[in-house]
Amino acid sequence: MRIMKLAVFVLGLALMSEVFVFGIEVDGERDEEYGGPLAVQGIQTGFGDPGSELDAAYAIVSEGMLYLMITGNLEPNFNKLEIFIDSKLGGQNKIAATQNPNNDNWAVKFDGFTFDSGFSADYMLIVRHGLSGTQLDVDFAELGEGGKGSLVGRFDPVSLGKTGPFDASNGLVLGFNNTNSAGIGSNQGQLANQEGASLVRTGSELAIPLNLIGSPKGEIKICTMINGHGHDYLSNQFLGSMPEWTSNLGTNGQGDFVQDSSLKEIDLNNYGGDQFFVVPSLAAPLQVIDLSYETESKEFSITWTSDPDSFYTLESSVDLRSWQELDDGIESQGEETTHDLILADKNKSRFFRLVEE
Ligand SMILES: [Ca+2]
Ligand SMILES: [Ca+2]
Ligand SMILES: [Ca+2]
Ligand SMILES: [Ca+2]
Fold this sequence. Notes:
Elements: E1 6-10, E2 39-40, E3 53-62, E4 65-73, E5 80-86, H1 106-110, E6 123-131, E7 135-142, E8 149-155, H2 157-160, E9 166-167, E10 173-176, H3 194-199, E11 203-209, E12 220-227, E13 234-239, E14 277-279, E15 288-294, E16 299-305, E17 311-317, E18 324-331, E19 336-342, E20 351-356
Antiparallel strand pairs: 1-20, 2-3, 3-4, 4-11, 5-6, 5-12, 6-7, 7-8, 9-10, 10-11, 12-13, 12-14, 15-16, 16-19, 17-18, 17-20
This protein binds calcium ion (4 copies).
């Protein structure tokens, strides 16, 4: 079956191209380009206000990057923002310590931790706050046997006097602005003011190169949470949100800290709703970006935005009702494709359209 992505245009009309200026700045402040939130916090934090809270999550895929904006705060007492990413087939619905890199000792502490069904983590990020007071450490790990994990950046926004962009060694970019004083409150587990949570503009912002996370083309799922200094005392702050009356999970899901234990008793299926959110796939719209016609040679050339693995059919019509195929099986040349052909009957007014096969 054909996917009827159509681009209709009229030869001879001046091509009006829309120029989309992409303006996300990785500075810990939410940009308009993100649009609406993909998840909003539903409950008040058990990690203090101002302390650590996750107000809302925003994300957009563009120009080979996943831009992620998590509004809220991260207390500089070694609290950790932990972000698990499900961006490819396979992965771990239940974390197995022996099958993961153990950078920053996270995997041992997460051993046995279970995500909601429908989420199997492939990558994870740790943003740790508090070394020397205001420093941020960023770790990135690929899950699975043979996967690697390590510290990829260390930044101090306060001493540097800016909130980003900070370039990590693996191409990831971080922005961090911890000045939020609004958003949700700290009556632990009680319903949060979601309108207030949606108004927060600052927090942790990340640009993650898609090739770091398996070059996904489809949707990307993200589970984010705030953990204590040893990766073994989870707050009640997750996005997607925990249900009302959820207190800090602690080590055992009951708010207790269990020495030399792991998060193995925590199964997100036991908490209502999905503790993850979905970043929709952003297939580039099929759009004609250039066309030319040489009157003498009758050479017609058309360029459009294409999907790298697709094939296209070029059709023409005089009435926009019946269409004749001019060429099919036109192989994509990447993100843009140009096709040349000789057009006779140059005086005849015609419409053209492209169909993705
Ligand atoms: Ca920003
Ligand atoms: Ca996966
Ligand atoms: Ca707050
Ligand atoms: Ca759940």
